[in-house]
From TrEMBL:
Keywords: Membrane, Transmembrane, Transmembrane helix. It comes from the Bacteria. The chain crosses the membrane at residues 40-61. This is Peptidase M23.
Length: 131
C-alpha cells in the first residue's frame, strides 16, 4: 500500500498544469506558463537559498556587520578589554584611597574605635660572634 501512495504522490508532483495570465478587459492571454508542482517547489527552494545567500553575503562582506550586537573588530575587542581592566584598577585604587582618608579623619577627630595594630613583633636575636 505504501508503494501505491508514493507512486500517486510522484505522479501528482509530475502532473503538468497551465498558468495563464489574461488581460481582464480584452480576455487576451498575456503570459502562459506550463508548470508542475515539482518545478514550483524547486523554483521556490532556489529563490529561498539565493535570498539567504545574498543576505549572508551582504552582512559578511559589508560594514553592516558592525551593527550586529556582539560583532566587532578584533582590535576593538582588545581595546575594550584593556579599558575594562583599567577602569577596574582605577575603581579599586579610589576605594582604597577613600578608605585611607576615612581612617585618617577618624584618627584626627580622636575617634578611638579605629582598630590599632597592637601585636607584638617577635624579632629573632642574632648571635654575635667574637672572631
Amino acid at each position: 500500500m505504501a508503494k501505491i501512495e508514493t507512486q500517486t504522490t510522484l505522479r501528482r508532483l509530475r502532473n503538468r498544469y497551465r498558468l495563464v495570465v489574461m488581460n481582464d478587459d480584452t480576455y487576451e492571454e498575456v503570459v502562459t506558463f506550463k508548470l508542475s508542482r515539482m518545478s514550483v517547489y524547486i523554483g521556490l527552494s532556489v529563490i529561498f537559498v539565493l535570498l539567504v545567500g545574498l543576505t549572508t553575503a551582504l552582512l559578511v562582506l559589508t560594514p553592516l556587520k558592525y551593527y550586529i550586537p556582539g560583532y566587532g573588530s578584533r582590535q576593538g575587542r582588545t581595546e575594550l578589554q584593556v579599558l575594562k581592566i583599567r577602569t577596574d584598577s582605577l575603581e579599586r585604587s579610589i576605594r582604597l584611597k577613600d578608605q585611607y582618608l576615612d581612617n585618617i579623619k577618624k584618627v584626627l577627630s580622636g575617634n578611638t574605635s579605629v582598630p590599632r595594630d597592637t601585636n607584638a613583633i617577635n624579632v629573632p636575636k642574632t648571635e654575635i660572634s667574637n672572631d
